[in-house]
Amino acid sequence: MTIDYIDFIRDLVIDLLAIYIFAFVIFYRRYGDRDMTIMLGLLNLFLFTIVITMTMTEFTLAAGFALFALLSIISLRSVAISKIEVGYLLGAITLGLVNGISIHDYLLLFLCNVVILGGTWVLDAKWLMKQTMEVDVTLDEITSADLKDRAKLAERVQALHGLPVLYVGVEKFNAKKGSVRLSARLRLD
Q: Is 27:37 a contact under the CB 8 Å cutoff?
């Protein structure tokens, strides 16, 4: 099999430009998380290298299964990452895959990158949706009758945190102590 190094360089340049926009321009400027930004870039680069190797060489099915087994060893379960970070992680993986499979239709390749980058920029824009945060709150002097009035619980949480409450959920009620543990979503203004 002959390797087309021009295609390799083209795909690498496209991928590096896409991950730069994705990780550094969009993610880092919004969250300032250096570690996550580096992880997004490295994960994309490593995945790109694996995919480009698989598509440009005689990569057998057995080698593919061995690679899958090796990649499945990697576990992020010990690291707590947010839902947004998971989304960005999947975006970095997608960019690596799309740009690494040597798509020869340049318009399709361009459109795939525009959809991923543009979609990320729009969906994570502060002007589209207000930012929120989830908090766990314990309130004392609560009766079982108070649990039925969610508006009153929301008022107490708002008084405690000084932020508008979008949602209040009861996690655990202790009738003996007269306390309740709540999960609340607050809007950051």
A: yes
| Local confidence pLDDT in tens for the 189 residues of the chain | 677 888 889 988 999 999 999 998 998 888 888 888 888 888 888 788 777 777 776 766 666 666 666 566 555 555 677 777 888 888 888 888 888 877 778 888 889 899 899 988 887 887 766 777 889 999 999 988 888 888 999 999 999 999 999 889 899 999 999 999 999 888 887
Q: Which residues does 154 contact at the CB level (< 8 Å), separation at least 6? A: 165, 168, 184
pTM over 0.85: no
Helix axes 5-19, 83-100, angle to 10 degrees: 160
Of 123, 156, 172, the residue that ends a domain is 123
Its domain, for residue 83, covers 5-123
Judgement on whether residues 172 and 87 belong to the same structural domain of the protein: no
Domain end call among 101, 123, 145: 123
Same domain, 50 and 32: yes
CB atoms within 10 A of CB 61: 7
Looking at the structure of the chain, the number of domains it has is 2
How far is residue 169's CA from residue 31's CA, in Å, rounded to a whole number?
28
